UniProtKB/TrEMBL annotation:
One of its GO terms (molecular function) is cyclic-guanylate-specific phosphodiesterase activity. SMART domains: EAL, GGDEF, PAC, PAS. It comes from Pseudomonas helleri. The chain crosses the membrane at residues 50-76. Residues 384-638 form the EAL domain. The keyword Cell wall biogenesis/degradation does not apply. GO terms for cellular component: plasma membrane. This is cyclic-guanylate-specific phosphodiesterase. The lineage of its organism: Bacteria, Pseudomonadati, Pseudomonadota, Gammaproteobacteria, Pseudomonadales. GO terms for biological process: cellular response to nitric oxide.
C-alpha cells in the first residue's frame, strides 16, 4: 500500500473514532443535562448539525491539504501559463519575418508559417505533406546535405547558408537554422527549420564589392582590382616562364575639355575613351581606369618590349578618330608609358611605378606618343628624390639666392622694372639654375615655400631700392600654380607687404596661364582677393596654355607676358610673328600691358617695338643678376 493510501486510511480511521467518541460523549452529556424529552430532542438535532458542520470543515481542510499535497493548484496555474505561452508562440510563429518549417521525424512537412509562404511562393497546402527537398535549388551536391544531417545527428542542430528555389523557379540564398526536437526519452519527434531570405543582403554585398573594385563612371576595374589582376598575371607569368606588359595611358590636355565644355562632357568623353579601349583590346585583357584621365591595360603573354610598343601604337591610333559627345566633335590624343615584366620589374607595384615613369617621359617628349621604361628613368626618379631632400636642407641653410632680371620700356629703352628669379647656391655644385630644381620643387610641393621666401626677399629688396631713390615701377615675383591654388596666399602676401612696408602698387605677381586656367573659378576669386591689396597681376608664358578668351576677359590682370618660345622665332618665323602680333593686339584690345620675354637680339627688340609691344625682357637687355650688380642707367639703343 502506498504512503498516500496509508495516510488516507489513517485519516478515515481517525475520523471514525472521533465520530464515535463525539456521539458517545454528546449523547451522554445531553442525557444527563436534559430531562425533558422535547428539549433533549431539540439539542440532539443541534448536536447533529454541529457535527455535520465540523465534518464539513474537516473535509474542507483535508481536501485543501490533499490538493496542495498533490500539486493540482500549481498544475492548473502552469496549464494556464502554458496556454498563454502557446498563444503567444502561435502569434510569433505567424508574424515573424523568418520562414519556419516543421517536419516530423521522417521529414514530412507538418507545419509552415506565413513567412515561408511569402518567401517561397508556395501555399501552405502545396507544402504540407511533402518533404523539404521540394525547395532544392540544385546548387548543392549530396555531400552538402549529408553534412547537414550529420550535424543534426551529432549536435542536434545545423546552421548555415543554403540556396533554395522559389515556386517561380528563382534560386535564392537563405540563412537557415535547423534543430531536432526530442521527446522525454531523447527520441527525435520533429525537425524545425527557421530561415531568413538573404538575397537582398547578398545583392548589396555583391554591389559593394563591385563598387570597391570598379570605377563608377566607366565601370572599368579600378586601381585596386587592376593591381590585384596584375599581381595574378605576374604570378602566372612566373609559373609559365612567360611575361606581360603594362601600358599606362594618360589623355593629353584633357583638362581643356573639362574647363571649356564642362565636367559632364568630360565624363562622357572618358566613357567613350573607355569603350574604345575595351573594344580595341577585347575581353581577354584588363583595361582599367586608374583615376582622372588615366587608364591602364594589362597585356598578358607579352614579354617583349616590341610587342608592347605595338599595343601602345594601337592605342595612339584608336584615339585618333573623332569622339562624338552630345553634338560635340572632340579630338583627343594620349600618351602611353610601357613597362614589361620581368624585364623592368618583379612585382605589380614596381611595374605600375615604372610604367608611370615611362608615361612621364612620354609626356615630356611632347605627348601623343609612347615611351618605354628604362633604368635611366629610375635613376632620374632617384635623382629627383635626392634633389628634393637637398632642397629642404637648402631652404633651412639659406642657400637660395634671388637674382633680378631687368625689364625695359621698349620705346625709351629705360629699365623700369625687374623680375625676381631664384637660384640655388649649392655648397658643392655651385650656382644651380631654377630650371633644374623648380620642376622637382613643384612635384614635391616645396615650391610654395620657395615662392614665399622669394616674395619676402624681393619685397624687402624693392623697399631698399625705394629708400635709395631708385626709380622702379615694379618688382615681379613668380607664383607657382601650387601656391596660387592655396587660399593662404592672400594672407602671405598681405603679411609680407605689411612686414616690408612696400607700396603694393610696386609689386607684380606673375602667374602662369595654366595655373589660372586649371581651376578658373577659384583662380578668378584668388585674383580678385589679391587685387584688393593694390598689387598688379601678370599672366606669364602667355600663348603656351589654352586660355579661353572669354575667361581671360574676366580675369583682373594688368599684363600679358609673351612666352619666349614665340620671341625666339622673331623676326624670321612668320608663324611666330603672327602669334606675337595677335597677342599684342589682344592685350591692347583688352587694355592690358604686354611684355615680351627672351629677347636676345636687337632685331627681336626692334620688331617687337614695331609691333607696338610695351615692355621687353631678355639677355639682350640684361641677364638675371644679384641685386648689387644691376645697372640702373643701362638703356641699350635699338638704332645703332
Ligand atoms: N615659381 C617660381 N618659378 C621661378 C622662380 N624663379 C625662376 N622660376 C622659373 O624657373 C624657370 C627658369 O628660370 P630662369 O632659369 O631664371 O630663367 C628665366 C630667365 O633667366 C630666362 N630668360 C630671360 N631672358 C632670356 C633670354 O633672353 N634667353 C633665354 N634663353 N632665357 C631668358 O627666362 C626665365 C624667365 O622666365 P619667366 O618666369 O617665364 O619670365 C622659369 O620658368 C622661371 O619662371 C621662382 O622664384 N618661383
Amino acid at each position: 500500500m502506498s504512503v498516500s493510501y496509508r495516510d488516507a486510511l489513517r485519516a478515515a480511521l481517525l475520523y471514525g473514532l472521533l465520530s464515535v467518541f463525539w456521539l458517545q460523549i454528546s449523547d451522554h452529556l445531553l442525557n444527563s443535562y436534559f430531562d425533558d424529552w422535547g428539549q433533549l430532542a431539540q439539542w440532539q438535532r443541534i448536536n447533529g448539525y454541529l457535527w455535520a458542520f465540523i465534518s464539513a470543515v474537516l473535509i474542507f481542510i483535508a481536501r485543501a491539504r490533499l490538493l496542495s499535497f498533490m500539486g493540482v493548484g500549481a498544475r492548473l496555474k502552469h496549464q494556464r501559463q502554458d496556454r498563454e505561452r502557446l498563444r503567444q508562440a502561435a502569434v510569433v510563429f505567424d508574424c515573424t519575418r523568418e520562414g519556419v518549417l516543421v517536419t516530423d521525424c521522417r521529414g514530412t512537412i507538418v507545419h509552415v508559417n506565413r513567412a515561408l509562404v511569402e518567401i517561397t511562393g508556395y501555399t501552405a497546402a502545396e507544402v504540407l505533406g511533402h518533404r523539404p527537398n521540394m525547395f532544392k535549388s540544385g546548387r548543392h551536391g549530396p555531400e552538402f546535405y549529408q553534412a547537414v544531417f550529420k550535424s543534426l545527428q551529432e549536435s542536434g542542430d545545423w546552421n548555415g547558408e543554403i540556396w533554395n528555389r522559389r515556386k517561380d523557379g528563382e534560386v535564392y540564398p537563405q540563412w537557415q537554422t535547423v534543430r531536432a526536437i526530442t521527446d522525454g526519452k531523447g527520441q527525435v519527434t520533429h525537425y524545425v527549420a527557421v530561415f531568413t531570405d538573404i538575397s537582398a543582403i547578398k545583392k548589396s554585398q555583391t554591389e559593394l564589392t563591385r563598387l570597391a573594385h570598379h570605377d563608377a563612371l566607366t565601370d572599368l576595374p579600378n586601381r585596386l582590382l587592376f593591381t590585384d589582376r596584375t599581381e595574378q598575371a605576374l604570378a602566372s607569368a612566373l609559373r609559365h616562364s612567360s611575361g606581360c606588359a603594362l601600358l599606362m595611358i594618360d589623355l593629353d590636355h584633357f583638362k581643356i575639355v573639362n574647363d571649356s565644355l564642362g565636367h559632364n562632357i568630360g565624363d562622357l568623353l572618358l566613357k567613350r575613351v573607355a569603350d574604345r579601349l575595351q573594344r580595341l583590346f577585347g575581353k581577354g585583357f584588363t583595361v582599367a581606369r586608374l583615376g582622372g584621365d588615366e587608364f591602364a591595360v594589362l597585356v598578358d603573354n607579352c614579354p617583349r618590349t616590341a610587342e608592347a610598343a605595338l599595343a601602345a601604337q594601337q592605342v595612339l591610333e584608336v584615339m585618333k578618330g573623332v569622339f562624338e559627345v552630345e553634338k560635340h566633335q572632340l579630338f583627343i590624343s594620349a600618351s602611353v608609358g610601357i613597362s614589361v615584366f620581368p624585364r623592368d620589374a618583379l612585382n605589380a607595384e614596381q611595374l605600375l611605378r615604372n610604367a608611370d615613369s615611362a608615361l612621364y617621359k612620354a609626356k615630356k617628349a611632347g605627348r601623343e606618343g609612347y615611351a618605354v621604361y628604362t633604368e635611366e628613368l629610375t635613376t632620374h626618379a632617384q635623382y629627383r628624390v635626392e634633389v628634393a631632400n637637398d632642397l629642404r636642407r637648402a631652404l633651412e641653410q639659406q642657400e637660395l639666392r634671388v637674382y633680378y632680371q631687368p625689364v625695359h620700356d621698349l620705346k625709351t629703352c629705360q629699365l623700369i622694372g625687374v623680375e625676381a628669379l631664384v637660384r640655388w647656391q649649392h655648397p658643392v655644385r655651385g650656382l644651380i639654375s631654377p630650371g633644374e630644381f623648380i620642376p622637382i620643387a613643384e612635384r614635391t610641393g616645396l615650391i610654395a615655400e620657395i615662392d614665399a621666401w622669394v616674395l619676402e626677399q624681393a619685397c624687402w629688396q624693392m623697399g631698399q631700392w625705394q629708400s635709395a631713390g631708385v626709380e622702379l615701377s615694379f618688382v615681379a615675383v613668380n607664383i607657382s600654380s601650387r601656391l596660387f591654388a592655396r587660399p593662404e596666399l592672400f594672407t602671405l602676401v598681405s603679411t609680407v607687404l605689411a612686414d616690408t612696408g612696400l607700396d603694393p602698387a610696386l609689386l607684380e605677381l606673375e602667374v602662369t596661364e595654366s595655373a589660372v586656367m586649371d581651376d578658373s573659378q577659384a583662380a578668378l576669386e584668388q585674383m580678385h582677393r589679391l587685387r584688393t591689396l593694390g598689387l598688379r597681376l601678370a599672366i606669364d608664358d602667355f600663348g603656351t596654355g589654352f586660355s579661353s578668351l572669354l575667361r581671360l576677359k574676366q580675369l583682373p590682370v594688368q599684363k600679358l607676358k609673351i612666352d619666349q618660345g614665340f620671341v625666339a622665332g622673331l623676326p624670321a618665323d612668320n608663324d611666330d610673328v603672327a602669334i606675337v602680333r595677335a597677342v599684342i593686339a589682344l592685350s591692347q584690345s583688352m587694355g592690358l600691358a604686354v611684355q615680351a620675354e627672351g629677347i636676345e637680339h636687337v632685331e627681336q627688340a626692334q620688331l617687337l617695338l614695331d609691333l607696338t609691344c610695351d615692355l621687353g625682357q631678355g639677355y639682350w637687355f640684361g641677364r638675371p643678376m644679384p641685386a648689387s650688380e644691376l645697372d640702373w642707367q643701362r638703356a641699350p639703343a635699338m638704332h645703332g
